[in-house]
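Q: Could you fold this chain for me?
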Amino acid sequence: MTYCVGMMLRRGLVFMSDTRTNAGLDNISTFKKMTTWAAQGDRVITLLSSGNLATTQAVVSLLDERTKAHDDRVSTLLGVPSMFQAARLVADTLREVIATHRQAGQEADSAFRATLILGGQIAGGAPRLFLIYPEGNFIEASADTPFFQIGETKYGRPILVRAYDRDMSFASAMKLLLVSFDSTLKANLTVGAPFDYHFYEADTLCAGPQGRIELDDPYFRDIADRWGEALKEALDGLPDFDLPPV
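A: Sure. Below is the predicted structure, expressed as structure tokens.
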């Protein structure tokens, strides 16, 4: 399983993904689920992936190979004229990979499904964020839907819904995301650290701060411990329920 979040802020775009993949509790591996393509001064594009690992790796590999090999750069992520066209390109590539599995005789199409989050900015346009479905269709983030989650979404969603603020700083966004990811990994063993992140500042057209948060990272441990304590204190501070007499 996976947990990834792409978020739009007034300041720019925020991305975070876990790295755990597994085929059972005795077969756990770590794979990077975030990929960034950048041409300084022209564009920055980040892709988050959830679903079948063979499918998502094939999608990333195809996008990479075609970016490096094609003379017709308009048909690559470093050549498309807009983020909408980038989303169409990624969606078509995802659909192509899934169709290839089908043509190879795979019986269960659902086993090879994948969902993607694509975000970034291309010179001449604003930062944009898309959610791409296995069927190859996609939707775009808006003021009403300012963030997307893929993978194991339900445990980390409540804090995002309650605490998200479009005007928050990158530092506050990191704090919010770490609480969301901590809630998810505590509830589901198929999601786990380390967590990869990328903060893209609007209109810079160059990759922003990127890195990896390990499970033993002092800041993450402090956030997780304090959040747990704060929840307990908030619960204790609520009025008790008056049980009716027996």
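A (continued): Helices lie at 53-69, 83-103, 157-163, 170-187, 218-237.
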